Structures are given as structure tokens and as C-alpha cells.
Amino acid sequence: MGRARIFDVAAAAGVSVTTVSLVLNNAQSRISEDTRQRVREAADAVGYSASAVARGLRTQRTRIVGLISDQIATTPFAGRMLAGAQDAARENAHMVMLVDTGGDAEVEAEAVRAMTAQQVDAVLYAAMWHRAATAPAGLPAGTVMLDCYPAAGGFRSVVPDDRAGGEAAVRELIAAGHTRIAYLDTSDPEPIASRLRHEGYLAALAEAGIDVDPALHVRGETSAQGGREAADRLLDLPEAQRPTGIFCFNDRMAIGVYTAAHRRGLDIPRDLSVVGYDDQQLVAAELDPPLTTIALPHYEMGRWAMEVALGVRAEGDEDAPHRMECPVIRRDSVGPPPAQVAKRDRRRASHTTEGPRSAAPDQVTDVGVGHQE
Amino acid sequence: MGRARIFDVAAAAGVSVTTVSLVLNNAQSRISEDTRQRVREAADAVGYSASAVARGLRTQRTRIVGLISDQIATTPFAGRMLAGAQDAARENAHMVMLVDTGGDAEVEAEAVRAMTAQQVDAVLYAAMWHRAATAPAGLPAGTVMLDCYPAAGGFRSVVPDDRAGGEAAVRELIAAGHTRIAYLDTSDPEPIASRLRHEGYLAALAEAGIDVDPALHVRGETSAQGGREAADRLLDLPEAQRPTGIFCFNDRMAIGVYTAAHRRGLDIPRDLSVVGYDDQQLVAAELDPPLTTIALPHYEMGRWAMEVALGVRAEGDEDAPHRMECPVIRRDSVGPPPAQVAKRDRRRASHTTEGPRSAAPDQVTDVGVGHQE
DNA sequence: TTGAAAGCGCTAACAC
DNA sequence: GTGTTAGCGCTTTCAA
Known about the structure:
Two copies of one chain form a homodimer. Chain A is of the alpha/beta class and 373 residues long. Chain A contains eleven helices and twelve strands. Chain A is elongated and about 90 Å long. Strand 2 of chain A pairs antiparallel with strand 2 (95-100) of chain B. Chain A binds a DNA duplex (16 and 16 nucleotides) through helix 2 and helix 4.
């Protein structure tokens, strides 16, 4: 039993294929309501659904958009970009064809060729984490880059606003009363995110009138292990210099901070506050206490990119990436600094454990309950 | 500048389109080597790549395989299934078209229609976690199900061998000398995985001649929180009954076990051994100590499913799911039980902390270093 | 060893 | 209001 073709529907309804095509595509109705009815019934009766292949050949529009990614689709990290792109595609009656290159340049070139051969209507080029990317040759004009931006320009792109995110993270700590705030950075040289978040860190400190202490900017490998080692260096600082709040490059490193703190018998957030970055699923919320962190707007970026690629959204500029807000996710890892002599005292108080437990701008943090069972 | 068509290549090479088609498709060469050469050069010169759409219409084979999933593509969990499927597709010159339904039945039905309209050559139906699935109506014959099996039969499928995985996990504990081994199960009623792993648990105990203590089978919500609560119940048991090893339904719950242990000042693995399940990326390995766990063969299942769907692999049976091995990933959360009077003593010894630290069958576990810095 | 030509299933210009 | 028909770009039979 082969699939029904448009001719079969026409025959069943006693009309021409033109008529069938017209009513099924909702063309401006020159067709009588009566005929439309008959056609639709006939189509249902034979279980007709138009061949996208034939239609694509005829119209030269496939309603397929290609998504080339380095790793996002196969890695447990940025999958929600795919969800956003997928949803936007579906809402606009498009399908997504996926190629995950694993970062291999040859596979990537092959993917571009394949997408071209498939005559996709648009392509998205996505990275797993925010970076500058050299777009592979042959990417169609109109391609939009996702979570990365074209090193050489020429494409629209969307990235997280890491600078504002870093600033928000540090403000969170400042609002809780901290003044000795460390930035536990990645040692990976590449990430633009590292630099931007650092800028945000500095900006937040400056805004609050807090002097920056270079000793409070440490680096480590991007892992729990690396986070622990860097945290140890921070916690080994003389008491008057030791940070009471740590802003971590990401949640994985924050895990290490938790470990380092626990090994010293330090309670979070009573003795040490920490803010992560990424809001990594199945990690940040599962820590004890749940980690206050900055979320990456993966879903929103995916949706944005798809909508722009489809021309549904008239934004995007080839000369500057679109930056999307990274919201702060307040959980229980931030509290006021422990009651102790602060290095300086020019900030508004709340330096006692009894003080208001949180000065978060617009939401009361559900402060951790420490060791109580 | 429109794309080149086969006619352009033919003209450039001074041959017919037939010839071009023949040489570019490597048909059994009736074409002279000389002509072939000329054609290839012409094709390169004009940057020709055949339209997959036109070819698909003509041959009625699109070289596209559809992948319908409930969540895997957009969730940070089973993405490696996609990687396996993707790789197998690429190796066989196919593209994958993805629809993530988010579990919505309507979207799913729409996805099936869309795949049909696209005339995909095959479809994979994937679930995020091992379960029985009612295949949506209209799935083409030959569809293969991934990480789920058809509740009503009729499709080939591949799932993890959770029974053997559970058995392996418990054996790991037994081999280290434990006899009081708990199964910290999920309270979610659905998962077949829960049941199968429990069977494996019982089988391993039986094999070792260890009586099962019903008090050692506890359930909790599938989260760190749920794991912690269930672990507390276990650790509140009278000392003689209290487990020295806990096999957890998954890594998330194992996180909770770590928390519960730490709050009591128990060291892992010195005072308590734990084995997880899932080998969840960015979680299991980041715990302190790194978690010994059972991995889900996501990549392999994805690859298997794609190869079977493509007919490259002549396996698969519609009446029984293909089960794939879940390998044990040895890390540092399993050690010998603490030196104390065991409830019974009929098992081979190594009941002292000084004894051989690991009796793992084929690999020496890198035992954790406890509190030492 | 090569070429002419017939479609694959659809849409849309153009007739009626 | 409705139908005829010419392609979209390719593969493949058949003839030369």
C-alpha cells in the first residue's frame, strides 16, 4: 500500500489536482466551500499528506533548517538551546535537521555541504559555550550563530551577556553585605566568558566602592577538582584578607568550593557564601545547600536564533552579537558574611549573623538552615 | 548566483546530464576514464553538488532518518544517544531530522505526520529513560525504539540491561566485602528500571548467599533530597542492621546519600560505600569522592538503533528488546566495610580497614584518601 | 561508450 | 470556479 498522491485525492473528490492543491494549501479561496469540503474529506479518506520532497523541489523551499553544532546536541550541557530552536521551528512549520560535528573541522565542512545539498532554508551554527568562532566556508548568507559570534563578522549572532551576569552575581554578594569577594576564575585561556564575567565582577565592586584585591582573583581548572584547589588557596589567606563570598566561573567549580569549605568545617552560607554560573541542570539545585547561580539563557538564545533565521523576528546585526540576559537564580548559598572584623567598614551593615539574612534586591532568599536536621 | 544544476556541469564538460549523473554517482563505469575526469573537473569548477531534494523525489529515497524523542535532545541527560545515532547516520551518508516532542502526544502525532511527509527513510523513536512506550499511531514499519520498548510489541527496540547492571553494582559491593547492602530505590512507580535493578540486587545477594533484609530496601523521591531522606532512614537503623554499602537507583540520589553521610560525620568510602547508576556527566565524577557507578550505554544504544534502522546491522527482534550492557565505572566510593562485628560472618573476610582495600574483579579501585589533605 | 527522454509529486501560471 | 500543463533537478531505462 503506497502512500496516496495528490492525483488520488483529486480522483476521489472528482476534481483536478489544482483544486486539491489549492484547498489543501489554503490558497486565497477562489474555490467554493462545497468543493473544499469534498476535497478535504477525500484527502482524509485516503490519508493524504503532501510530499514535502516534491513540494520542496517545486517551490525551492524545503521548510527545513539546518543546525550545525559543535557538541551541544550530544552533550549534557546546552541542550536547551536545541529546545528553543526546535520550538520556534515547529511554531513556524519548519523541521530541523541536525549535524553535530564534535568540533571536527572536516565533519563540519561536510555538514555545510550536506546542508547545501538538502537546500535547507536557513542554517544555525551553534557552539556549546560562548566563544568566537571561525565560521566554516560555505555557510549560507543569513546563517545565524548561536552562543558564539563570527570571529570575522558577517553573520548575525546571539550570546549570553556574561558581563552583566558577572556583575549581577557579585551584586548579589554585595547586597548580602559582603565586601571581601573573590572571583574564582577558569584557567582556560580561551573563554571570552571568563573575561566578561571578570569585567562584571570589577564593575560591581567599583559601583559599590569596594577596592579590588588582586589576591582575590584566582584561577583553576574548570572542574570540581580545580575549583577545590583554587578555593583552598583563597581560604588559606590570612583571616583579614580571606573572602567571605566567592563568585565562581561556573557551577562545577562551585562544587569544589563546597568541598573545600566542608573539609575545613565551614558551613555554607553561614561561614562562606558562594555564587556559581550556568545553573547547570541536575547539579546546581542538587548541591547542599542548593546553589545560587546565574543561568545561561540557552532556551531563549535558541529561540531567538531560529526566529531570526526564519525572518520571523527582525532583529540581529551582523556587526555585534545580540546579548541576552543571564538571570540570577536565588537559592541558598548566599547569606550575610560571618560576624567578624571586616577589613573596612564603609558599607552598610548587616555584618552580624543575627542581621537580616538577605538583602537580595527583589526576592527573599530562602536561607539555608545550616546543620540543623 | 544560483546554485549550479547538473545541466551546467554537463555543458561545462561537454557531455550529457546522463553521463554527469553516472560519473558523480560512481555507477559501474561504462564511462571512459577520460570522460570521468572531465566531468569531475567541471563539477568542481562550477561548485556543483546534487540537489538532495530532486534526487529524493526521483529515487524515493531521501537519505534522511527521522528521530522523534520525548526529551532526550533538549535535556541534559541522554544526549549521547543522539551522538551515537548521529555518528552511525553520518557513516552511512544519512542526515537526521529531529523532533523533540517534550512528551506532548499532540506534538508527537504531528511529528509522525511530518516525518511521513518528509518521506524519511527510517525513524527512530527515543525515550529519555528506559520505559515501555505506546508507539504513536502511524509510525512506519521498521521504526526502531530507543531506550524504550513498544508496550504492544511490533517494533524492534534497544534498552539498557538494567537487571545485569543492578547485579553488577551489588557485586561490586560484595566483592569489597560488604554483606549488609541496601538498595536505595526510587519511589516513582513507573520505571521498569527500578524493578529490573532490584531483581539484579536480589540476584547478586542470592548468588553470594546473603539473606535479604527487607528493611534494607528503601524508596525515596528521585532527587538528591529524596536520596538524603531515604539514606537517613537507612543510617538510623540499629548498628547491627545498618548497611555498610548502598546501591542507589541513580547518581542524583547518591548525591543525597553523600550529604546524609557527611552530616553524620561518616566518611565515604571508609565508613560507607556507595554505588550509583547512570554515570551522569558532570555529576558522578565531580562528587567527593568520585562516585563508583553503573553507566548507561547511551551512545551504543543510539548507534545500534540507527544501524538497525538503516539495515546496516541485521539484528533486532520485534518480540524482545535488545539489551545492552551497562558497564561499571569504578571510582572511589567503594571500599571495604568498616571493621566491626558483622551481623553474620559467612562471607570471605577482608572485614578490617587494613585489609585489601578492594576486591573488584578486574581493576584496582583508586581508593579515596579520606580526610587527608 | 554515450545520449534522449520519461517521469518522481507537486505548485502555479495560464487558460477556460 | 475550475482544469491543463509546464516545469522544479535529478536518475534511469532504452536506444544508439
